[in-house]
Amino acid sequence: MSIMKMKNTVILILTVLTAIWICGCGGSQKTSDVSGALLDAQEPKIDWRTLPRPSGGLTLSVDSESITADEVINPVRQQLGEMAGQMDYESFRNRVKPLLGTVLVQKVGDIRLYERAKAALPENIDEDIINKIIEQEVQIFIARYGGDYAAAEKVLKSMGTTWKDFYQFQRRAMLVQSFVSTEIRDEKPVTHSELLEYYNRMKGEYFTTEGLLEFRVIEIEAAKFADANSSIADAEQKAKSLAAMVSEKIKKGDDFGELAKQYSNDPAAKNGGLWKPIRPGSLAEPYDAIEKAAENLDIGQVSEPVAEGGHIFIVKLENKQVSSCKPFEEVQGDVESRMMYEKRRKRVDNMMEKIMSQVDLSYAEGFLEYCTQKAWRDWQMSG
Predict the structure, then answer these.
(1) How far apart are CA 165 and CA 161, in angstroms?
(2) Going from the N-terminus, what domains does the chain have, and what CATH number goes with each?
(3) What pLDDT shows up at residue 286?
(4) Beta pairing class for 212-221 and 59-62
(5) Dihedral angle computed from the Cα positions of residues 72, 76, 82 and 83, in that order, rounded to the nearest 10 degrees
(6) Lowest-confidence pick of 30-39, 50-59, 323-332
(7) What's the sign of the alpha-carbon dihedral 286, 288, 291, 293?
(8) How far are the Cα atoms of 4, 34, 72, 107 from residue 66, in angstroms, in the given order?
(9) 374, 73 contact by CB (below 8 A)
(10) Are 307 and 242 in contact (CB under 8 A)?
């Protein structure tokens, strides 16, 4: 995979992650808690000693930070282990190196985004307010474990991190969120005509409930009555007679499901003739006759025998959902929220693409090679 393809993949990943910050914004402005511009919103095992020694260094320097090999390997370590267990080293290398490259590009992009977020901080930022917000996030994390500080700390240790790292992560996330929120802000209001155009374009996807039919069927197939001593007409007459007898039993109160198990030639007979819900217009001939019969029934009603293409169907309607579309006036708020979200997503796409275009990893080939070798060696030693 080329570096450019890796970048394109990572732009998508970063955009989806960033969307978490903007999807809750809806169509309204969120009041900041921080003054200024801070916040808005496995082939048999090979002896690893015979492999070439890793080269390229243990870390990769990016601006004022460094990325270790484990930081590149750990997010996909389980996947790498599964791959290593199924191929030799050269096959592993060819598969894994591009994958690790994608992780590396993402991490470099994260660093560049953070650097831009730090650079955008106002000089008079109130660190006490920042620390207070971070402490609130810490308390929320502890609350997830019943308010047990020791239990939360145990979880952090199992992740190979510490409270100090957790604080730093929260600060980093907060600054990046603030920066992204500021960068994608658009003060221009959405017009009524824009909302209506978006509604008409997207109503089939978001605001329309499709029709559904759920029914039971007793299918009697004329071919089942055919033999060498009878004509097609005889077979059809026998099928009609059986269908009429079954229909009469239903009218007298016999259980439809039990009759389906006893007489129906349909695969669903073992389930009492119950089909999975279908969309109107989705059945091919001759089974479209079932749909037509069901549409003319009320829930609980049973049709007369319907003959079509050598089959006779008796249908009982279990449930019906009529297709409907919510009017614009009813969903205008939702339309505005979705439209604003999509506009923010586009601005995030553009911002991330610009940042990732500045990521040059041509110098990182040796480091990626080292990460690939280390991932293989780690798996060999773990076995």
Answers:
(1) 6
(2) 3-189+333-382 (no CATH), 211-322 (3.10.50.40)
(3) 93
(4) unpaired
(5) -60
(6) 30-39
(7) negative
(8) 22, 30, 11, 10
(9) yes
(10) no
68-105 as b/e: b if 16+ CB within 10 A: ebbebbebbeeebeebbeeeebeebeeebbbbbbbbbb
| Pairing status of strand 212-221 against strand 311-321 | antiparallel
What is residue 187's predicted lDDT score, i.e. its pLDDT?
67
With cut-offs at 50, 70 and 90, classify the pLDDT of residue 311. very high
* Residue linked to tokens 């089939």: 204
Per the confidence metrics, is the pTM higher than 0.70? no
* pLDDT over 90 percentage in the chain: 46
Q: What's the chain's average pLDDT?
A: 82
